[in-house]
Amino acid sequence: MARLAGTLPTVRDRIARAVSSADRAQGSVRMVAVTKSHPFAAVEAAIEAELTDLGENRVEELEGKVAEFGAEAATWHMIGHLQSRKAVRASRVADVIHSIDSLRLAERISRDASADGGAATVLVQVNTSGESSKSGFDVARATEEVHQMAELPGLNVKGLMTMAPFVDDEVVVGHAFGELRRLSERLCALTDRVGGELSMGMTNDMEIAIREGSTMVRIGTALFGPRIGSVQ
Q1: What one-character DSSP code corresponds to residue 215?
Q2: Which has the closest alpha carbon to 147: 98, 96, 186?
Q3: So where are the chain's domains?
Q4: Quick check: 207 and 189 in contact, CB under 8 A?
Q5: CATH label, 2-224, candidates 3.40.190.10, 3.20.20.10, 3.90.1170.40, 3.40.630.30
Q6: Which of 62, 147, 160, 226 is the most exposed place for a label (fewest CB within 10 A)?
Q7: What does the alpha-carbon distance between residue 188 and residue 192 come to, in Å, rounded to a whole number?
């Protein structure tokens, strides 16, 4: 709580100033507080600070924290790479999955959600930077493939997600985020089965992401400091 008392107002101010600079409405950008690899104490502090969206990048850690604090304590986001064999576990504990990076993964979640008579809320990860180290749909094929995914039963495709290159070149970073926004515009014009959420931007590049249209920024280090590596 002591750390958040200092960092949270600073992060909120950064977001507010970026939103204002982009001539967007205040409240149009949602902050997902990333508690991955931080202990339960960090999650407790986040909840006490009324941070309602919490993000994890490992299924096991997400399961542990939801079990500890309860499904109703926050909106729980799965933001990390998701293996197909863990897809069902993730869909049953996460409120939103940000990292659907293949049709195979989408189909796995679709089958499970449909069997239960429900729907999983997901975002589609797109590799807008073209980096081989990053997962996600290729931009050139994404319009067709995301449209195809959106037709699957049991999936609520709320929008798209990307990660920009970790570089100091603002033009390069802005291009990666702009590509996702333009793809979103094409998809939303094509079908009403894909929502307009754009999960893009982290501690180091949130201002650029907001300028390019982000509706969700994923913030960890700026709030909680370096990751500790323990979930206890």
Answers
A1: S
A2: 186
A3: 2-224
A4: no
A5: 3.20.20.10
A6: 226
A7: 6
- CB-neighbour burial class of residue 205 (10 A; exposed 0-12, middle 13-18, buried 19+): buried
Tokens 């249209």, residue located: 213
HSE of 160 in the Cβ direction (CA atoms, 13 Å)? Answer: 31
- Answer yes or no: is pLDDT of 117 > 90: no
Helices and strands, counts by H and E, the chain: 9, 9
Tokens read off for 188: 């939303």
Given a cut of 50, is residue 232 above it in pLDDT? no
Q: Distance (Å, rounded) from C-alpha 99 to C-alpha 154?
A: 16
CA–CA separation, 203 vs 206, rounded Å? 6
Q: Which amino acid is at 131?
A: E
Question: Between 103-115 and 139-150, two packed helices, what is the crossing angle to 10 degrees?
Answer: 10
Q: Is 47 helix (H, G, I), strand (E, B) or coil?
A: helix
Is the separation of the CB atoms in 81 and 62 below 8 Å? no
Per-residue pLDDT band for 66 (boundaries 50, 70, 90) equals very high
Mean pLDDT, the chain, rounded, equals 94
Assigned token pair, 117:
């008579």
The rounded distance, in Å, linking the Cα atoms of 15 and 29 is 8
The amino acid occupying position 133 is S
